[in-house]
């Protein structure tokens, strides 16, 4: 897992970082339509989302097997959480098509407060819970989730 300001992305060995930075710089991220946009077919695409974060109790932890997530907050604030793989138990089977499995966890949870121009990267197998309400920040969050085939 990586958490930082987008201006520091190049510090890390994140696959496809140049293409992700180019996409963000060439597009008005506030005006992109919600939904999926292909960048390089199934190897790299982005999901544009706008929503009001929910309490953590309403969201599950998830892992992926084939994709890393680079979650970039355009505007708003949300709580993301990460947890050790030894502290999770499955609540669903692995969905091959969607490349996810849901889990629950109640210990060893790390909170990340992610705001505008910040990002978090979750690699395959790293359990994470995103789109969670942070204190009283009840406004909309606009986020780009880049799906990077690993």
Describe the protein in words.
The protein is mainly beta and 150 residues long. It has one helix at residues 17-26, and strands at residues 2-5, 35-40, 44-51, 61-63, 67-75, 78-83, 88-90, 101-105, 109-114, 118-122, 127-132, 141-149. It has one domain: YhcH/YjgK/YiaL (Jelly Rolls), CATH 2.60.120. A hairpin with a 3-residue loop joins strand 2 (35-40) and strand 3. The longest helix has 10 residues, at 17-26. The protein is globular. The protein starts with a strand and ends with a strand.
Helix and strand topology:
Layout: E1 2-5, H1 17-26, E2 35-40, E3 44-51, E4 61-63, E5 67-75, E6 78-83, E7 88-90, E8 101-105, E9 109-114, E10 118-122, E11 127-132, E12 141-149
Antiparallel strand pairs: 1-10, 2-3, 3-12, 4-8, 5-10, 5-12, 6-9, 6-11, 7-8
Which topology does CATH recognise?
Jelly Rolls
Q: Give the count of helical stretches.
A: 1
* Percentage of residues assigned to helices: under 10%
How do the strands line up in the largest sheet? 1-10-5-12-3-2
User: What does the overall shape look like?
Assistant: globular
Q: How many domains in all?
A: 1
Name the CATH architecture. Sandwich
* String of helices and strands: EHEEEEEEEEEEE
Low-confidence stretches are none
Radius of gyration: 15 Å
Features:
150 residues, mainly beta, Jelly Rolls, six-stranded antiparallel beta sheet, three-stranded antiparallel beta sheet, 47% strand
Quick rundown:
This protein has 150 residues and is mainly β. Helix content is 7%, strand content 47%.
